[in-house]
Amino acid sequence: MTGSAALTTGIAIGAGLVLGAAALGVVGGRRAIHPRPKRRPVVRSVDVQQIRLERTPATSAPGQYRIRFGAQDALSALVGDIEGQDETTVTRALVDASQGLPAVDDAVLWTGYVYPDPASVDAPYEEVQIHAPSGPRKAYLFQSGTPTTRWAIHVHGIHSSRTSALRSVPGALSAGLTSLVVSYRGDVEDAAAPPATLGQEEAHDVEAAIQYAVDHGAKDVVLVGWSMGATINLILAATSKQRSRIAGLIFVGPALDWRSIIGAAARRSGIPGFLAPLFTTALTVPGLAQAAGLRRPLRAAHLRPSLDGTTAPVLILHSEGDTDAPIGASEDLMRTYPAQVTLERFEPVPHGMEWNSDPERFTTRVRQFVESLP
């Protein structure tokens, strides 16, 4: 082979590798921003007092949970403590099966949403509408016992809904805060169903919620972020026109480092870890980001936002067993800002299930933190 032929071959190989890497990045990036089916444990036996299910990390975790079943998962039952288990199944108490029981061999949706709707929080509420940049967004507004000028704004995680964030409302109400539980573009209530932007465009809708609170009497706010909600709130703490009104930040199972989160998800799927950086890189590169489904590339700096833009105190509630958003990023944030960040560790439970494992401790810690704010 002549020198020119070898050069041509090398260029072709190099171009092929670049194109292949770009294609892999687009495929992996698309998986990260679009919802994927959740694993559904199978019912092995059930009666009015107990349910025996396929054993998974979720079904074998301590605490109370809600299963959904039936057509379009319209029915639900509240599942309680573990009463027995073996290598393949877990038997748990049924706390409330007033809507009926799933059938044997049904694959049920396992959730942490113990409160199935706002009425179950047992506090006065109304549904309000926020005029957000992406369009009108609904929110639950819970009033505390006495009028207050400090509000809590509860922000749920990726591919989720307001229902998931209801668990943090009792803690805020017990500290005397009005609570606003918000929705935003791309969540499960959004009929348009655009892909997630890992908190970056969603933050504009939550900023509109802060403005709503200010317009209705709030002088400052405590932002409560579940999973990707923490990303949203960190972005707002650095960029919002209302950032001076942020009195405190509470993060539950926070998504603080999307590179590590997407990398962990790739490894769980059997994808070699060294390929994972291609996925997040694709989401930040013009052309590749659009090929993955985004309208515009993501800002690389917001894939791991910092606390440099705020001095607000931070409380993190995080399970040591979280494999979706590993606790290491929370530990890093605490080490970087030791005077600002308090990390409350919970026993190993799946992502976002800290409240479920110990609701009394969770609620008490939220109340204590809010009451300690200046």
**The CATH topology of the largest domain:** Rossmann fold
Looking at CATH, the homologous superfamily of the largest domain is Alpha/Beta hydrolase fold, catalytic domain
Residue share in helix: 25-40%
What is the number of E strands? 14
Report Rg: 22 Å
Widest β-sheet, arrangement of strands? 7-8-10-9-11-12-13-14
End-to-end Cα distance, whole Å, is: 75 Å
Shape: globular
Q: How many helices?
A: 10
Q: Strand fraction band?
A: 15-25%
Low-pLDDT runs? 5-22
CATH architect. name of the largest domain: 3-Layer(aba) Sandwich
| Strand-pairing-aware structural class | alpha/beta
CATH class of the largest domain: Alpha Beta
